[in-house]
Amino acid sequence: MMKKLALITIIFFTVFAFTGCVSGPDYQVLDGDFEKNDLSHWTLVSGNPTISDEIYFDGSRKYMQEGESFLTTKESTESLVIRSNHFVLSGMGYITFLLSGNSNSQNTQLSIHLSSTDELIESAYHMTYDGDLFIDNFVRIVWDLSVYLDTELYIQISDTDANYINVDGIDTFIENDYELQRYQTNVLERMGFMTDDLLMSAEYYLNLHKQYIDSDTRYSYHLMGEMGWINDPNGLVYFEDEYHVFYQHNPYASIWGPMHWGHAKSDDLIRWEYLPIAVAPIVNHAGGGAAFSGSAIEIGGDLYIMYTENWQGYQYQVISKSEDGITFEKINEGNSVINEDDLPFYANPVDFRDPKILKKGDTYYSVIGSRQINDYGQVLLFSSDNLIDWEYVGPVIQGSVNTLYTLGKMFECPDLFELDGSDVLIMSPQEIPGHRNTHGTVYVVGDMNYQTGMLENWDLSQIKEIDYGFDFYAPQTMIDSEGRRIMIAWMQSWNRSPMTGQYGWAGALTLPREIHIDSEGQLIQYPVSEIENYRENFESKVIDVLGNQDSLYTGNVIDIELSFKPVETESSGITVFADSEGNGTHIYYKEGYVYLDRTDNMGGRHPGDFYNITKAPVVLQEDGTLTLRILLDQFSVEVFINNGEQAITSTIYQSDSTDKIFLFSESETEFTLSKWDLIID
Ligand code: FRU
What we know:
By secondary structure, the chain is mainly beta. It has three domains: 5-190, Galactose-binding domain-like (Jelly Rolls, Sandwich), CATH 2.60.120; 198-527, 5 Propeller (Tachylectin-2, Chain A), CATH 2.115.10; 532-678, Exo-inulinase, domain 1 (Jelly Rolls, Sandwich), CATH 2.60.120. Strands 35, 36, 37, 38, 39, 40, 41, 42, 43, 44 and 45 form an eleven-stranded antiparallel beta sheet that branches. Strand 25 and strand 26 form a beta hairpin. The two termini are 47 Å apart. The protein binds beta-D-fructofuranose (FRU). Beta-D-fructofuranose is lined by residues 231-232, 248, 259, 292-293, 308, 353-354, 412-413, 473-474.
């Protein structure tokens, strides 16, 4: 079946000069003139290149060449070397081209050389080669060679072994950002559309590229994608003695994009093992539907996930099943289980997403985020006996003009569970006027009426933020075998460009937190105790501080416990991620609040206090003590105040020189400080 239905036009080139020929600064290599069957701008050193317009082995499509024709070394029987005319690197200083071939050998490559010395400055072989799979599909490569701007260069294509290489779509003159972006998007498109099986494409892409992510630029103990972008935690579940966490994932780039479900598991919530991507966007004749957020449940030894497909502006819910916890298949022959036809008249079908599935007695319930037709948010409850047929029960909670400043508009990512004798709803309301992150995350404690679908016995004053930081969104919970309720959130916010995009990844999840509801109905959250198993190099101090103490410790993957009795009107606290002058992220108490000020760690981003200083309301303990537990991990800080009564989570921009820890106080204060390195090998 691998028979090639190739349509081959082979043109042998017999007349070539054997010396390089400079055609002046105006010359640029555009496509290489392969479309015109013209290699007169190339110099053949040896071998026998041809121009081909082959199509894919199954006859269905091209090798993704541009136009019809491309250069191939396939027919060359001897060692082949061909050079472009010399050109002066101009415009933005980028070079791009398409490459494919049957080998990942460095003897079959495209390279760029300095005209003056022939020195090789960049080279590529067909690194996406993987056995028989995608050998002839062109991938696009874009190189930033701007350090060579205005320098005379040439391109060399060489094939000095039994393999072959195909080249097309060369452009040595990228004039502006728009053109560059078009090429960069094309890099992704080509990866995404290498096959109709987008799950396979994504896996394939990850396997080829994840090696380029430098482990020094990754978090040490926060779950992130293998590379690319992640947002919400999805499908949190304790399944077959392990914790499974899925996450919204664009493996192709450090920006939000076609949503997949990434997947990892752990037996202690700290060390994670990546599993194959669980869900890819669906593709059909009309386009693709992204796999948005959702949840998981174990039923009779199988794992089910319920999530939203977002397609052409509509959102509907689907359920997939897995026997092994790794590969998933839709239970309803690919169709939705809840869609716009199931919605009450007051719900807008365009915003209807993020189902969290739960079971009570023999009935399954699902709480789903929704927007009312009046634009305010709501959470809707559906019920089912068999997972396929769902009925609308009622609105768990609805926003209105009266709740605008607490609950904003659309409610995303609801979760409903019983905890310490109360019914708790958490959700992420969007567009709260004046909110530091625009979108918030809140909890409400009440009594759930599963007959009417409504949460009862709560009022607006009881709705509280879960975390007062800059980077905490879309939390979800699961229960484990010990009965612990564990919450994990996305450690990032919308509308801010994550600081790590430059390293090939963006977004991570918070450290898992055990949560409780105390006797006053307040949510208490604290890092799971498992993180303490990774503490090493304990050091501790009791120290009187007035003014800025000299740097006490160094490190940025650290667990700190701090307690002190602050003077109400004076600032006192700790600076982390600091330079040697003490400029860093300040965490301090003053007049009823714990502040986090990351202004010094923003690397010039988001100037202005609005984005850089936040505060959580705090009541000191009876004897006037404040305790802070602070966990640092490369680019993040999580602060737990008074044993988890409040939390502040924030990412920071950090460099190697900002790893110092200081204490400071405007009035003499005694601090008790313990510190451990967290070492996760
Ligand atoms: C929340 C959210 C969800 C949606 C997902 C898309 O951060 O907007 O409502 O399902 O992200 O990635």
